[in-house]
Design a protein that fits this description.
single chain; 295 residues; mainly beta; ten-stranded parallel beta sheet; 49 strands
Length: 295
């Protein structure tokens, strides 16, 4: 698909609807280039995206120089689907798939518990390689019951995010981040939106379990739970040459940079300048360090 566009509204609110996208419902081994959608998309089921609904398992598509400006809404409480401002769901076992030089500006709203809700991409499968390079999202991401909620990506799996950013406010339940809700490897990226979590693991950049290199967050982070950090809520990957400037507030394990450090994670040449506050335990840099790594 090249040099194409769509406008209007799409309503997939039926029990039989699978995936729903503003330009393409399901994208397999193909390329979307220099294309856009200004469609408002709403659905009760399946992968839901402003440009593409779902990229299935075991394919290697490319989305480049493309964008979506419509709002995306999903309204089936309790269903486990994925929703994103550009792409709803990306499957497993990809070896070379990529989204580059692309963006989304619409608000993303979900009523479900979710597998991933993000301003650009909802969920990326756990296995295989997939990259998001030079992309951004500016819309507000709201998923009050949602887990894995991020300003750019909800759940990044084992993929990579490079030179990308998000500026919208993010609201979710657990694993909530200004850029990424959970997982992935993040390089040279940033988030500026405020983050609010009703549950555990909230961070200005990442909710939990991501490796972070040369990246930063400036938004404030507030949570009713534990594992709250100005940059990372739950640190299970290395954090290198990165920083946070926003305040962090939560119940327990609250840190200016990392709420809770676990596994073999190391913190290297990184800092925070915001004020961490907690009902139980807070630390200027790290709320709780239970890792076998080093700072």
């Amino acid at each position: 698909v090249e040099d194409s566009s769509s406008t209007g509204t799409i309503d997939c609110q039926t029990a039989s609807a699978g995936t729903c996208g503003g330009l393409v419902g399901t994208l397999s081994d193909g390329t979307i280039s220099r294309s856009n959608s200004s469609v408002d998309v709403s659905s009760y089921w399946g992968g839901v995206g402003g440009l593409v609904g779902t990229i299935p398992n075991s394919v290697n598509p490319t989305i480049e120089d493309s964008y979506a400006t419509g709002n995306v809404w999903q309204g089936a409480p309790g269903s486990s689907i994925s929703i994103g401002g550009l792409v709803g769901s990306v499957g497993n076992s990809l070896t070379a798939g990529i989204i580059r030089n692309s963006y989304a500006t619409g608000d993303v709203t979900s009523l479900n518990s979710g597998e991933g809700i993000g301003g650009l991409v909802g969920r990326r499968g756990l296995f295989g390689s997939f990259s998001i390079n030079d992309c951004y999202a500016t819309g507000k991401v709201s998923a009050y019951a949602g887990n894995n909620v991020g300003g750019l990506v909800g759940n990044m799996g084992h993929g990579y995010i490079r030179r990308s950013w998000a500026s919208g406010a993010v609201i979710g339940n657990a694993r909530v981040g200004g850029l990424v809700g959970t997982a992935g490897n993040i390089q040279d990226s940033f988030a500026t939106g405020n983050v609010f979590s009703y549950g555990y693991f909230a961070g200005g950049l990442v909710g939990g379990e991501s490796g972070v290199v040369r990246s930063y967050a400036t938004g404030n982070v507030e949570s009713l739970g534990s594992g709250v950090g100005g940059l990372v809520g739950y640190g299970k990957g290395h954090i290198t040459d990165s920083y946070a400037t926003g305040n962090a507030h939560g119940n327990d394990h609250v840190g200016g940079l990392v709420g809770r450090l676990d596994g073999s994670a190391n913190v290297i040449r990184s800092y925070s300048t915001g004020k961490p506050t907690a009902t139980v335990t807070a630390g200027g840099l790290i709320g709780a360090d239970i890792s076998s790594g080093s700072v």
